[in-house]
Design goal:
The chain has about 325 residues and is α/β, with parallel strands linked by helices. The chain has one domain (about 5-300): Carbon-nitrogen hydrolase (Nitrilase/N-carbamoyl-D-aminoacid amidohydrolase, 4-Layer Sandwich). It contains eight helices and 14 strands. It has helices at about 15-35, 50-55, 65-75, 85-95, 175-185, 200-210, 280-285, 285-290; strands at about 5-10, 40, 80, 100-105, 115-125, 130-135, 160, 165-170, 190-195, 215-220, 220-225, 245-255, 260-265, 270-275. β3, α4 and β4 (about 100-105) form a beta-alpha-beta unit. α1 (about 15-35) runs parallel beside α4 (about 85-95). The radius of gyration is 19 Å and the shape is globular. The two termini are about 15 Å apart.
Length: about 325
């Protein structure tokens, strides 16, 4: 394969999981209709990133009834793996015949950790098979109020018809050993999932592409203040209008030389489609081949810390 058509789905979050699954299907089919073989969705696209943790008042108060109600709804709409919502995502990938990378809030239904939520990336093949299941290693700051710490079981790239595809969530792009493990697994395309891809996230995405000599899809989400939970009061110092963007996208595509193929797109829903010349990976890898490639990740302890979860396919 010398060229690959990819798509980033930058869209406003849906009001609930059912609507989110419908929107996912619509966007995946639209992307496939434009020739996309790989389609990427933002961090916790389903059921939506909990931006209320950062912009609403009293979200961290102990035993606060409004926050408890919001969390209960978030937990209800999170994706169980395996479960009906995960099956629906698999069906979307299969029907659109695309490799699909989607961020979800995952809910553990049974066994160890029952009831725990995780910030998770699911990668599906065009046959609907779950190829990779990665839980964010360490939730960032206020995220620890809602998500548990993940493990390294999905810290790898997988073979797909769209090439070798890997992904990390947000702050993981500033974790050197996580990056090391991903580089060692060999990525053609890296999907960098962000809640919104602001300037520093752009820096991290471009640096990752240059360091790994791979293409990077920086995927950001969209959310207006009007979509914040009605139970909580937006902080007046953070939110001035219901129409204000709380998350403003910023999705972009970066080449293996660290330069933009598609500049960041802010403040508008858009299906961002581009054709990647995979031959550029070998061109830009010359420096790595001459100076010596990355040390192997086996030098570090990335063993999973817990059991009782579904095993993903080897890809």
């Amino acid at each position: 394969m010398h060229t690959l058509t990819v798509a980033i789905a930058q869209a406003e979050i849906a009001p609930d999981l059912e609507a989110g699954l419908r929107r996912t299907g619509e966007l995946a089919r639209e992307a496939a209709g434009q020739g996309a073989q790989l389609v990427a969705f933002p961090e916790t696209w389903l059921p939506g990133y909990p931006a209320w943790l950062d912009v609403c008042r009293d979200a961290a108060l102990w035993d606060h009834a409004p926050t408890k109600a919001v969390f209960a709804r978030m937990a209800r709409d999170s994706v169980a793996v395996p479960g009906p919502a995960a099956d629906a995502l698999a069906a979307i990938a299969r029907e659109a015949a695309v490799t699909m990378v989607v961020g979800v809030s995952e809910r553990v239904e049974a066994g160890p950790g029952r009831g725990t939520l995780f910030n998770t990336i699911l990668t599906f093949g065009p046959d609907g098979r779950l190829l990779n299941h990665h839980r964010k290693l360490v939730p960032t700051y206020t995220e620890r109020l809602v998500w548990g710490p993940g493990d390294a079981e999905g810290l790898r790239a997988v073979d797909t018809p769209a090439g070798r595809v890997g992904s990390l969530v947000c702050w993981e792009h500033w974790m050197p050993l996580a990056r090391q493990a991903m580089h060692d697994s060999g990525e053609d395309v890296h999907v960098a999932l962000w809640p919104t891809a602001h300037e520093m996230h752009q820096v991290a995405s471009r640096q990752y592409a240059f360091e790994a000599r791979c293409f990077v899809l920086a995927v950001g989400g969209l959310m207006r203040a009007s979509a914040l939970p009605p139970e909580l009061e937006p902080h007046p110092g953070r939110i001035a209008s219901p129409d204000e963007w709380v998350m403003r996208g910023g999705s972009a595509i970066v080449g293996p030389d660290g330069r933009y193929l598609v500049e960041p797109v802010y403040g508008e829903p858009r299906l961002i489609v581009a054709e990647l010349d995979l031959g550029r990976i070998r061109e830009e890898s010359m420096t790595l081949d001459v100076t010596g490639h990355y040390a192997r990740a086996e030098l570090f302890d990335f063993a999973p810390r817990r059991s009782g979860r579904r095993s993903a396919g080897d890809g």
